């Protein structure tokens, strides 16, 4: 499955424009993380990481409508069978606290961490006077990260797994993700 086919799957299952933007944020962040962890990665590997980010929340609205958020990450595969095994495992594992599918490698842990971080970064941009990603930097995100009352939905423990599970310092993980998101800030409307 290529990127265009993946985007068609995403927009078939997700209608909320903000969720689609979140998935795009995760797509570019995952591509950047692939390049960070695997500098020798070819275009197919980078695309696979991107597709994982793009599709990780494709079943979110479905799970929400069916009042089955504990199945989020699993429901997609009742409808879509053409997704690679690696991507499918990472999608299932990104919500491991509910799916009981544990992350096993850097692809799995990257989407589990970056999923939460992109939301925190967007929240940090939205409280800026200009509401632009370009006015957010790593220090701003770190400051907001420490404020427990800010963007309460962003699971800080999941984000911090970047250090233990991926061996990358939190500030560096934020920088890679933020830079990737800033590369599509016009598309994100931020």
Note the gap between the termini. Answer: 30 Å
Percent of residues in β-strands: under 5%
Low-confidence stretches: none
Q: Into how many domains do the coordinates divide? A: 1
What integer is the average pLDDT? Answer: 97
Going by helix content, strand content and strand pairing, the class is mainly alpha
Main sheet: strands, sense, barrel: none
Radius of gyration: 15 Å
Count the beta strands. Answer: 0
Query: What is the 3D form?
Result: globular
Q: Tell me the helix content.
A: 55-70%
Order of secondary-structure elements: HHHHHHHHHHH
Topology overview:
Blueprint: H1 3-13, H2 17-37, H3 43-55, H4 60-65, H5 85-93, H6 96-99, H7 106-126, H8 138-146, H9 156-166, H10 170-182, H11 185-188
Description:
By secondary structure, the chain is mainly α. The protein has one domain. The chain has 11 helices and no strands. It has helices at residues 3-13, 17-37, 43-55, 60-65, 85-93, 96-99, 106-126, 138-146, 156-166, 170-182, 185-188. Helix 1 (3-13) packs parallel to helix 3 (43-55), helix 2 (17-37) crosses helix 10 (170-182) and helix 5 (85-93) packs across helix 7 (106-126). The longest helix is centred in the first third of the chain and has 21 residues, at 17-37. It starts with a helix and ends with a helix. The model has no long low-confidence stretch (mean pLDDT 97).
């Amino acid at each position: 499955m290529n990127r265009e086919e993946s985007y068609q799957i995403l927009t078939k299952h997700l209608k909320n424009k903000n969720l689609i933007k979140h998935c795009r944020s995760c797509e570019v962040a995952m591509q950047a993380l692939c390049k960070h962890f695997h500098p020798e990665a070819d275009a197919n590997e980078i695309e696979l990481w991107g597709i994982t980010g793009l599709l990780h929340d494709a079943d979110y609205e479905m799970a929400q409508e069916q009042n089955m958020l504990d199945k989020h990450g699993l429901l997609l595969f009742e409808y879509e069978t053409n997704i690679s095994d690696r991507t499918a495992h990472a999608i299932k594992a990104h919500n491991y606290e509910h799916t009981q599918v544990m992350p096993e490698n850097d692809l799995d842990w990257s989407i589990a961490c970056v999923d939460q971080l992109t939301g925190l970064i967007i929240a940090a941009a939205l409280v800026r006077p200009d509401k632009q990603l370009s006015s957010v930097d790593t220090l701003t995100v770190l400051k907001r990260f420490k404020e427990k009352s800010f963007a309460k939905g962003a699971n800080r423990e999941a984000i911090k797994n970047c250090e233990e599970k991926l061996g990358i310092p939190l500030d560096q993980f934020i920088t890679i993700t933020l830079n990737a998101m800033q590369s599509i800030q016009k598309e994100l409307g931020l």
